[in-house]
Structures are given as structure tokens and as C-alpha cells.
């Protein structure tokens, strides 16, 4: 038994915000979809950047991974009855985008602090 005082108390049943299912690789000339899961009717804001930079913000209960001065809004939505909200991006088939970095992170909630999902993305193929 590990040392320390055991934690005893009620278990809170709550939806955990995060990615839903498998997120495919990002490829030029395709539609890339990322899906998030939380409790139904949860507002979700998805942000994107070409860089990752971890920081702690008092408005978020989890780390922010996109640079504060270098992100843009990808989309906003509300989770459906099944708790899922998808965001689809039409990726242009532009040769200049080959190996370009693209990262997405979403935040969710109707009250502060908001929950943040882990970042997802990589380089375009």
C-alpha cells in the first residue's frame, strides 16, 4: 500500500471533454474532420495555429497548447444529443502546403474555467 492518507468521498459523475474517435492524418485535397465529445448541449470553440506553445491560463482548467498571439478560430459549435460535435476543414490541394504544420485545440464549457482538449494535428501530407 503506498504511503499517504487515502482519499475518501463522493465520486462526481461528469462528462470529460476530449477527442472522439480516431482523428485521421491531414492530407492536401481532402476534408479533414476532428470530433470532440462532452456532455450534450456544451458550447465548443475550436482554434488552430501552425505552432505549439504550452501555457497556463486562469480561464482554462487545462493547459493551452496554442500560442496566445498566434491562433485563429476554426469554428464554433454545440455538442449534439450524443455529446459529439464535428469540425470539418477543406484542405486545399496547394503544393505550398506540403509539410506545413497545422494544430487544433478546442475549449468547451458555459462557465469559467473552460475545459481544454489536448491538441491534435501535425504536418500536411
**Radius of gyration computed on alpha carbons:** 17 Å
Share in helix: under 10%
Strands, total number: 8
Instruction: Write the H/E string, N to C.
Output: EEEEEEEE
Coarse shape: globular
Unreliable sequence segments = none
Protein structure class: mainly beta
Q: How much beta, percentage-wise?
A: 35-45%
The N- to C-terminal Cα distance equals 49 Å
Q: What value does the average pLDDT take? A: 89
Number of helices: 0
Q: Give a short account of the largest sheet.
A: 5 strands, antiparallel
Could you name the key traits of this structure?
125 residues; mainly beta; globular; 3-stranded antiparallel sheet; 0% helix; 5-stranded antiparallel sheet; 35% strand; 8 strands
Secondary-structure blueprint of this entry?
Layout: E1 18-19, E2 31-37, E3 43-49, E4 72-78, E5 84-90, E6 101-108, E7 115-116, E8 120-123
Antiparallel strand pairs: 1-2, 2-5, 3-4, 3-6, 6-7, 6-8
Structural overview:
By secondary structure, the protein is mainly beta. The chain is 0% helix and 35% strand. It has no helices and eight strands. The chain has strands at 18-19, 31-37, 43-49, 72-78, 84-90, 101-108, 115-116, 120-123. Strands 3, 4, 6, 7 and 8 form a five-stranded antiparallel β-sheet that branches. A hairpin with a 6-residue loop joins strand 6 (101-108) and strand 7 (115-116). The protein is globular and about 55 Å long.
Amino acid at each position: 500500500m503506498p504511503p499517504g492518507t487515502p482519499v475518501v468521498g463522493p465520486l462526481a459523475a461528469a462528462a470529460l471533454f476530449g477527442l472522439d474517435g480516431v482523428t485521421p492524418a491531414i492530407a492536401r485535397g481532402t476534408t479533414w474532420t476532428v470530433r470532440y465529445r462532452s456532455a450534450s448541449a456544451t458550447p465548443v470553440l475550436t482554434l488552430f495555429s501552425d505552432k505549439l506553445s504550452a501555457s497556463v491560463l486562469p480561464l482554462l482548467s487545462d493547459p493551452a497548447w496554442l500560442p496566445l498571439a498566434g491562433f485563429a478560430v476554426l469554428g464554433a459549435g454545440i455538442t449534439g444529443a450524443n455529446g459529439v460535435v464535428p469540425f470539418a476543414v477543406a484542405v486545399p490541394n496547394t503544393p505550398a502546403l506540403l509539410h506545413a504544420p497545422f494544430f487544433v485545440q478546442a475549449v468547451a464549457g458555459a462557465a469559467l474555467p473552460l475545459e481544454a482538449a489536448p491538441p491534435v494535428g501535425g504536418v500536411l501530407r
